[in-house]
Amino acid sequence: METARARHLSNRRYQLFLLVTGLFLSALCHAQETLSGAPQERVETNASILKLEQETGYRFFFLEEWTRDIPEEVDLSGLTLSEALDTLLANTPLNYYILEDEKRVFLLENTLIYDELPKHFFGRKDTLASETTEGITAPRPVPSFLAESVQRTARKYPIARIGKASSNQLRQRYTLRGRATNESTGEPIPDLTIRLSGTNRVTITDEQGNYSMDLPPGYNVLSITAIGIENMEREIVMYNDGTLNLAMEEGLEQLDEVVVEADAISNVEETSTGKETIDLEESRNIPLVLGERDLLQVAKALPGISSAGEGATGLNVRGGKTDQNLVLLDDAVIYNPTHFFGIFQALNPFTTKGADIYKASVPVEFGGRLSSVFDIRTKNGNVERFSGEGSIGPVTGNLALEIPVKKDTSSLVVGGRGAYADWILRSLEEESLNNSEASFFDVIAKYHHRFNDQSEIRATAYFSRDDFSITSDSLYNYTNRLASVRWDHRHSNKTVGALMAANSDYRFGIDFDGQANTDFDLTYRINETELKYKLNTRLNDKHSLDYGISSKFYSVNPGSIEPMGSDSDIVPVFIDEEQAIEGALFVGDEIALTDNLSLDLGLRYAFFAALGPGTQRTYFEGQPRNEATVQDTLRYNSGEVVETYGGPEARVSLRYLLAPDFSVKASFNNAYQFVHTLTNNTTVSPIDTWKLSDLNIEPQTGYQASLGFYKNFNDNMYEVSVEGYYKRMDNVLDFKTGADLFLNEHVETEVLQGEGKAYGIEFLIKKNRGKLNGWLGYTYARSLYRFDSQFSEERINGGEFFPSNFDKPHDLSLIANYKLTRRYSFSVNFVYQTGRPVTYPIGTFRFNNADFVAFSDRNEFRIPDFYRLDLGINIEGNHRKNKLVHSFWTISVYNVLGRNNPYSVFFVTEGGEVKALQSSIFAIPIPSITYNFKF
After folding, report:
1. Is the model's pTM score more than 0.85?
2. Structural domains in the chain (count)
3. Same-domain pairing of 805 and 725
4. Cα(900)–Cα(892) distance, rounded to whole angstroms?
5. 3-state secondary structure of 296
6. How confident is the model over 19-51, as pLDDT tens digits?
7. Measured between alpha carbons, how far apart are the two ends of the chain, in Å?
8. What gap in Å lies between CA 587 and CA 547, rounded to an integer?
9. DSSP string of 666-716?
């Protein structure tokens, strides 16, 4: 008996028959295309097909490689030929056509054979057409066809045929899903831009590289771009819903530019406002202090993000306090992401992939902070080969290793940093710091395992520690520790989910060893554990739902002090531990109203409960809170609810495309914040404490509205945006004059809760390509607070609005990089900021034979304006592909102009005279040279 393959190739006369009798969409063209390429692997004819031929007497025509997925041991007894074929081909892309008269069966990949014309072909009314809500007849879905001219075109990638054609499932749109991965490492590619050529239809891959896109039936061309990835163009034919996974090659010039085109496209097309995406490679060519690559310093160069001063811990986003930022490292909160008073970030630059920063339009899954979210991601390891990256600089040494655990499946990333920073303190202008010391280290490990295309797991562990001694008798230390586990799973073609568990711990301590019997050990700790489950369901091409639930448990040790050594006279003090739970339910819908108009709606319900054990005071209503107005002291058992707070949070954003490269966006969101920092320092310090809301301290609340315009020029080479915002805040914390906050059992008597407002306009222009690239950002912003009361001791500046400690109306940043050759580039970083507010003494007076100083209203004056110029030269090694180690040198000078920028201004009394003194962090140019290597 002649073989099925021979019969298939010899019976060419049936092509003519099928063309004449109907609309013939044949797999023969695909067969010819396949056979004309590289030699195909020999596949034996499927046993089930052979058995059907023998039992039915029908002859089958097909290509043998199509039968790979057909099961070979299936019980087909008692079934008709059609039923048997339906069973065999159910989970394959194959259809069939039975020619009864000739007893022949044609198998076709993806496609169908139509042997009669549709009823409407000769002008009759199409009874299958649908009526729209406007009464206009919608076009009838048509079968998918592939033109002969397209089939004959030369191409790098073969045409992908998606889905299995079905005459019962003809639709105007089919859904294409898939996952984008790095071909070399196997790790997912987030923020990959996939555009349907010739249209504004675009989608972007999520953090796991997954994407979903609705496409018309038939032939489509997808244009695919991503950061550091070679551009790809894929041709596909949509027959039905289906999957196309993308294995992307790394771009040969991925390190040449500060920003890439994919980010510029998303700036216009995404619905969210106030979002910034940073890839850590952006900081590679930016001259920073002592040569350290620093994601947080790059963030400060963007509009709307600043700090209270050079060397200040924490960031201020759109007029918010530093405690109003939620900083996440792989889904776990990191309470202090800096080392050495904010001069260095506490993140290994070689294990950090990048960050999404949300200044507005915060995704519905995030909550608990009023101002911003920093969603920082670490890298997945190389699953192909052992590799590493590191640097050696004047202060720190960094190393990160990527270790394949199971090839193509799992990997381990391990990173470590150490500092030898004592010499910095000795070089500072302040003489009292000459005998000081400082050191820090951080370590991180991440395990990533991909079970299959539908499921993967990631686990991250991180620890950092700082030790510093500003005086000879006190040793300060603080530590961050966190761990997180995340399981991502695709439940169906439409739904993906992520289950996350995380624990974060932040501690600081002071060891005092003085001359007298006053040695002590002081400690503080905050710990939180979170569990979150979120899902995304793409209902159709108009709606994409995000929804889920989260819960969090807080445990806070507000502080304790114990004598150190047997000779110490210090009396032990232990403040009652605080506990609380925080939870949220959230749902959001991303709605594509038209190709030009999209809307993102979200609702989040936040809940908080302060728990015992502990004691809480109540105070007489209408009286200031102090020892004299205590009404009662309440005691709560373990787990007993002290007080509850909560309410709904709305997330609304809208985007309208005025042109393919020009959009206008608007957004509104409100939020609750149940944790606060307590500090009476002018700027944030590592020993500020966190306080949970309780019976007497209410949660902070606020809302923000924003409006922006986004425009790209010259094929996305230039990106321009202008965005304005207005923010209101309630129950923000400040302190009474002379407040004693630490180790205070009744801290509510020392703090005030008032209102704040912030507003501003942000301008940003980027050049994304060419020898000269970078960005210029300018922000005009105000941040004002008001604390008013009928009692003078609870009133600041007469109850009027006054500038916050970080109110800087004018903020200008310039980042530029000029690539002279492939190996040499020059970088410049210029920053100008209005001086921050300060309170000055304005006179003296004498009372009861003692001299006193009279101070101005709080923050009535300003320190001198801040500006700084940094320069850098980057020298890369040769670009030979097979080198064992690729390296480059970074030579930079921080503060080239030697500007003596004041960090703070303080006052001392000498000989009965008040004198103003200025403290600076870096008052001279700071040169550095760093060697970077990668293998």
Report:
1. no
2. 3
3. yes
4. 19
5. helix
6. 434 334 344 334 333 333 334 444 566 778 888
7. 60
8. 4
9. EEEEEEEE-EEEE--SSS--TT-EEEE--SSSPPEEEEEEEEEEEEEETTT
